Structure formats: C-alpha cells, structure tokens
Amino acid sequence: MGVHPGEVRLIAQPAAPLTPNLQLLQQKIGIHFRDPSLLLEAVTHSSFANESPHLSPRDNERLEYLGDAVLQLITAEYLYKHHPGATEGELTQTRSAMVNTNTLALLAEQLDMGAYLYLGKGIAKGGGRSLKSLLANMFEAVLGAVFLDAGYDAAYHYYLNRYRQLPSPAQDENFKGRLQQVAQERFGETPFYDSEGARVGTKREYTSVVFAGAEPLGTGHGATKQEAEQEAARAALESLVGSSSATAGVKPVKVARPRSPRAPRAPRAPRLLPPPELAPEPPPEPAPEPAAEPAPPAPRRSRQFGEPLE
Fold it and tell me: What CATH number does the domain containing 213 carry?
C-alpha cells in the first residue's frame, strides 16, 4: 500500500495535471501516478523551489530521504533471498555497491532523468543535469514517490528491473563496507553513522560522524548524506589501519561474464635437442722408455797410487 490508512490526506497535495515533459518521464518509469504532485516533487531540486515556488514549492529532499530508506530495505531483502550462503559482511559490501552514488547515477541515466530535473538557472548553466550526486538523489526521490503512490512491490521492481540491466555493477571505494569488517574484527561492534544536513549559502552540506560503540571513529563532509558517510568511514579507516590499507580490502562485486572462445593454438614445432657433445679422446699414453742398461762397474784403483788393481 505504501501509506497507512488515513494518511493520504496528509501526503497528497492538490496539483495540476503533469506537463507533457513529466508525462513522458512517467511513461519511462512505467507507473501512472495517481498523485501527480509526488512526481513533480521528486524532480524538483531545492534551487528551483527557491527560485520558482509558484511552479513547484516543494523540493525533493524529503522524498530522497524516504527513497534512501526504501532502497536499503529493497536491496537487503533481495540479497538475503538470493545469496543464502553469504556472510553479513559480504551482504553489506554487496549492498553498498548496489546503492552507491555511481550505481544510482547510472540507473538515472538509463531513464535520462537529467533532462527532466527542475534546476535553478545557475546550477543548470553549470552542468548540474549531469552531476552524479544530483542524478542519484533524483533517482532515490522518484523511488520514494513510487513507494508512496504505488506501494513497496512497485518500488521493488522499479529499482531491480533497472539494476539488472546494468552491464556490470558500478565500482565504488566502499569505505563503509571495509570499515564494517574492521570494526567487527577489532571491536565486535557494527559501526553506525550520525548524519545531519545544513544549508551553507545556496548549497546543502552534510556532516556525518561514525561510531563503533561510544567513541567516534571519524568525521566526513559531503554534498549528500551518502558522500558524508563514505568520507567519515574513510577517515576512520585511515586512523585505524592507515591510508594505504584503507582501500586494500575493497573488492568490487564480481559479475559472471561469458568467455569469448579462444582461437585454436598453432601446433608447436618439434623441439630439436642439440647433438650430444662427444667427450674428447684422451691423449695416447707415451710408450714406456726402455730400461737403461746398468753401467759396468768402475775398475778398482789403489788407494795409495791410484792405479787400477788387477
């Protein structure tokens, strides 16, 4: 159902019929909104709501908040049912890759959502329609609108049908997934994040502090809550394991891809062995010299006169 009975009056707002542009987006999404104001709110950035409140007075930040929570439930249920052998840490890491800013921006680009985003003049001129953070936020806001208007099942299939069409899951630093593993190994605790948003000038900035138990581990800032939490997790990892190890355990989600057939190998030429070296013949032994004949004994001489004795 999406809402509790009796709450429709609090959520639905009187709205004019959708413009032709939003009617086209509605067709791409595949859901006919019973409350068109939800879709208008989902595509309205705060910059446009501030400049043109008479056209769209409510920005999409509340729907983005709701869509983020619904997305966490959708991915958690999907992974729990389809990966029965995965550990809690593996499920958390995979879910992080399914809901990160890069993945959601790709899903928004499938529907060309940037063309339908209501932006203020300055952000529009600065290329805001192609910013990943704005596209990811818009996708979550539309998911929240689908949940309110058509219910959980419609939101479930709205997300997963498009996620399955991605050629491969988008990779992300996934500092949050890595910190989850480190915190459970070291402290036996699951990290949690305290995030708050504040408007700085014309922009909104989020600050997030990550805890494991009572002690803060790191603080991060970002244009979105997700970015702030990732930065907080990165800072915590640097203090716990060092900057070089912070990304060492990050593993992208593996996707099975068909292998292209290998070209047959050419047969190897027979390996010729070098001829065995012949041992050099030993030089001929010299002929033994003939034994010398003994010399005849010298004649005996007289000791006194030196004459030979007969």
Answer: 3.30.160.20
